[in-house]
Amino acid sequence: MSLIRLQKITRRYQMGAETVHALREVSLEIARGEYVAIMGPSGSGKSTLMNLLGCLDTPTSGEYELNGKQVSQMNDNALAEIRNKEIGFIFQTFNLLPRSDALRNVELPLIYAGIPSHERKQIALDALTSVGLADRIHHRPNELSGGQRQRVAVARALANKPSILLADEPTGNLDSKTGTEILALFNELARQGNTIIVVTHEEAVARHARRILRILDGLIASDERTDEGKNAPPILPR
Amino acid sequence: MNFFTELREGLLIAWSAVRANKMRSVLTTLGIVIGIVTVTLMGTAIEGLNNAFLKSISFMGADVFYVSRQNWFADSQEEWLKMQKRPQITLGQIDSLEKKYTLASAIAPQSSTERTVKYDKRRASNVEIIGTTDQFPLTGSVSTVDGRFFSAFESEQGRQVCVLGSEVATNLFPNESPLGKKVTIGARPFEVVGVLEKQGTFLGESLDNELIIPLQQMLVAFGAGSDYDIRVKVANIADMDNAKDELRAVMRVVRHLAPTDDDDFSINQQDQILAIFHRVAGTIAAIGLFVTGLSLFVGGVGIMNIMFVSVAERTREIGVRKAIGAKRRTILLQFLIEAAVICLLGGLIGLGIAWAMTFLLQKIMPAEMSLPIVCISILVSLLTGVISGFLPAWRAARMNPVDALRNE
């Protein structure tokens, strides 16, 4: 059974007098444990697709089944709960809370999940340890390097043991060396059986995934499987 | 996530937000501080005045009727002039009232005049000389602290004895006991048999600048020119209405009124003054609280303004929180708590300042900060926060996470 099943998903926006067709009847299935890259130039609809996959947005029409649950018609609060339990977001700009230390940032989804204090401290600590930041738990984001910040974000995404890790240009704000490190971390997470979806416009980043979806003008232009992405080259400096 | 965890998390977030913007928080709080200070001081002053008045009026006694020719409060000038024409109350009428009226525990007539009182080389001027009977202390709440009131025998005989008000006593006898000494009024000597306890002031006039002598002596010494008031203390305070009706009926008989005649006397009581006082004080309180409430309102608008700024500034944070699983309610609560915390801080600071200023206020007027005022102030500041924080918090709660995350 597929973890993600999109059926004829359409998303339209009203931009002034103009209607923008961001997605046109996109159908897609992703199985548990897949490592997928979504590529496409800006304006292709890949961000819209990511927002829909991340349950941040709902489709104009079509059906979205996530982990056996029909989410396309859910209301705000139900979606919030789905995001909390099923999806771990990793953003280009990290999006950590600036006034909270690493531990508290990782605790945040656990707080919203209603996990008691002592338990969530342990989970957050484990998550930070697994990304190699056990010695940085009381640092605030501005006391951490870019790579470390993104690791905190990954730990936060992992904290609730979500069905999907959804990364939006995860290396976009990192230099090539730390970018490669983060991608190595993704590879490791994929190897452990996590389902990962990376949205990117960089070929080098996408090549780490086992499956590459190319979006163009609101449609899936191609859907290719790579050879495990093991021999993917390091991302080039821009 | 249950409500209490949300509350605790909200408090933590609010506290860190307040600390992160110290200067802004202080400035915002200032509006609430000023609002709470003015409202609290107003309440304090009103309560102080109320209590002071109630204390000073208590000398009248809640269970005492004052029968006199005139009503204490005339509704119009014509009515006042009409009352002036009423026949005087006579001693004979007082006698028959005492015989016929059965619901009183004590009845005391009183007549008064103003004279200068001398002892040795000292003099006390404008002293109110009250002529009455030995029943007088039974009808009032005042008692002697030194010596005694004059006896029934002295009263009937019209002996030249007197009881001094505390102010007269201290003025004429600063260094010695007045008991047994003879003061003179005009040319007549009066032996001091007692001194009254201090009663304070009523409507700005001292109640202690008085001197009480037997009514019979008063008639002899100063003539019967003045009018009589009759103090009637009711035996059963639970039955005041009935006692008043009965008193009126007896007075009509005593005054020989035909059934068709209007009353030519009035029965006054403490309640009348209280009713008027409460009306006046209530109006002052309403106006005062409205005006001071305006400053609180302005403070609340300031809070609302700054909360809108805070929400706009933290759009991205709201987006992140929503992406991670915060529900509308969680976000709403977070910002509501933040506004409430700012206002509560302002309220507490305001209360502290008002508490200190109450001591200054006490130098010019009676003022008391009571527990209810403190509780109300805290409640009002909290409420201001919640009300003025609601709109910004609602806006935050309803944000679309996609747009919020895109915000730079």
Count the E strands of chain A. Answer: 10
Envelope shape of chain B = elongated
Order of secondary-structure elements of chain A: EEEHEEHEHHHEHEHEE
Mean pLDDT of chain B: 88
Characterize the main sheet of chain A: 6 strands, mixed
- Strand percentage of chain B, roughly? 15-25%
From the N-terminal CA to the C-terminal CA of chain B, the straight-line distance is 29 Å
Number of DSSP E strands of chain B: 12
Distance between the termini of chain A: 40 Å
Helix content of chain B: 55-70%
Structural notes for this entry:
The complex is a heterodimer of chains A (238) and B (408). Chain A has helices at 46-53, 76-86, 102-113, 117-130, 146-159, 176-191, 203-206, and strands spanning 2-15, 18-31, 35-39, 61-66, 69-70, 87-90, 164-168, 195-200, 211-216, 219-225. With 238 residues, chain A is α/β, with parallel strands linked by helices. In chain A, the strands form two sheets. A six-stranded mixed beta sheet of chain A has the order 6-7-8-3-9-10, with helices on both faces. A four-stranded antiparallel beta sheet of chain A has the order 2-1-4-5, with helices on one face. Chain B has 408 residues and is an alpha+beta fold. Chain B is built from 14 helices and twelve strands. Chain B has helices at residues 3-20, 22-57, 77-84, 91-100, 136-139, 152-157, 166-172, 215-222, 240-254, 270-313, 315-324, 328-361, 371-397, 401-406; strands spanning 64-68, 104-119, 122-132, 144-147, 161-164, 182-185, 188-196, 201-202, 205-206, 210-214, 229-234, 266-269. Chain B has a six-stranded mixed β-barrel. The model of chain B has no long low-confidence stretch (mean pLDDT 88). The A-B interface holds A 51, 54, 56-57, 76-77, 80-81, 83-85, 89, 91, 95, 97, 99-100, 108-109, 111-114, 156, 160 and B 1-2, 5, 9, 16-17, 20, 316-317, 319-330, 401-402, 405.
